[in-house]
Amino acid sequence: MMTNAIPKPCVFFMNSFLLKSSFFCSVFLLTFFSHAEQVKGISLGVDYLEQLEFSILKGKKVGLLTHPAGRNNTGTSTVEVFRDSEEVDLVALFGPEHGIYGDEKASVPVEDKVDHRTGLPVFSLYGKFRKPTANMLSKIDTLVIDLQDVGVRCYTYVSCMRYAMEACFENYVEVVVLDRPNPLGGQKIAGPMMDEQWMSYVGAFPMPFVHGMTIAEIALWSKKTPGVLKIDDGARKKGKLTIVPMKGWRRGMTWPQTGLAWFPTSPNIPSLDSVAGYPMTGLGAQLGKFRHGIGTKHPFRFLTFEGKDPEVVKNALDNLNIPGLSFQVKTLLDTKGENTTGVYIVLSDWNSWNPTDLAFHMMQLSALWEQPSPFGKASESESKLFNKHVGSTLWWDTLIREGSAIETEKFIANWNRESQAFRNETSRYLLY
């Protein structure tokens, strides 16, 4: 069975689960005593790997799957960190949606190319292929994954990781995941679970819409749980996964508490404002006349509704009494230099805030304000795309049948129970 030689100076164990011999047959986790040393700030997975002098990569041809937010805790890109190390033989780059430099538009295929900065081949995993081919992987021994996620199921970087893990396990290539904080923290879990029939690249895991896990925890859970990865179970079991965790991160941390700078993960997630807004409004503006600020300086945090005065929208949102949120009418310049007046969403109480509540209330308002309902008149392709993001057939069927009379709060309460059940089931794969 596949195992890794564990470098003795850096190996400490955090819990008994990780000591089970079966665990180490296919998963190697670099761990440490979190209370035995004083950690100043956060050491990301890439920082910890560098502290270990890249020992697990020595003698291997390395591919790196990353993007512009893949940086160490001083802001240096992981591409540069690897290229500057004599211990790392970096031979290929792999790019997710938006490319390795984040300058490609959403949902637009990206071509393979040669990186003008390093001269290395860049294999696109958001173009002709979503899953690395055997030919791509033939050039490497190990694929290192360093992607900053935003904690939301439909954000495609975790999907990209899943497909990459599957291909690597099928082709006997080791996967190394460098962990990073979940910017929504590790305790927020919300929204519907993903029905099997709607699983796709914008919903590649059977998890709540806001999942409360780090990217390495998702990798570990999917590696150890039958059926999460869509490959032969023998390949899953024999596949080799190495996780390099963070030092100093705690589940309750918000991003500002980490002391880390935020680097845009995609063109419409330029700031932490947008990270919090993404699960709040992304689903709610998919169908209907709500718009959520794309094209302004507050993507996903600035609401308008065609034909409705902003004060009317604000009053309707105020009357929902959504915990943790308040609303302000603002006028902003859009990308065309024109004034746009709408409703800015204020996250006033992080602890009471449920990240997905607003989106489903937006759908209810859309069904009230638009006749015929945008959901009832949706085309087949529109309804499929909507359901691939939301993931709940029951919500869709009830929304179509009941429209604005839908009992949103009952759905939210049920999703909260399902989310807690998911956390209970996956708790043993949590690293912090």
Number of domains: 2
Q: Which percent range describes the beta-strand content?
A: 5-15%
Structural class: alpha/beta
| Cross-sheet strand order for the largest sheet | 1-8-7-6-2-3-5-4
**Low-confidence runs (pLDDT<50, min 5 residues)?**
1-25, 33-39
Distance between the ends: 28 Å
What is the 3D form? globular
- CATH homologous superfamily (4th level) name of the largest domain: Uncharacterised protein PF07075, DUF1343
Major sheet characteristics: 8 strands, mixed
Helix content: 25-40%
Whole-angstrom Rg: 22 Å
CATH T-level fold name of the largest domain: Rossmann fold
SSE run: HEHEHEEEHEHEHHEHHEEHEEHHHH
Tally of strands: 12
The overall pLDDT average reads 91
CATH first level of the largest domain: Alpha Beta
Query: What CATH architecture label of the largest domain applies?
Result: 3-Layer(aba) Sandwich
Helix tally equals 14
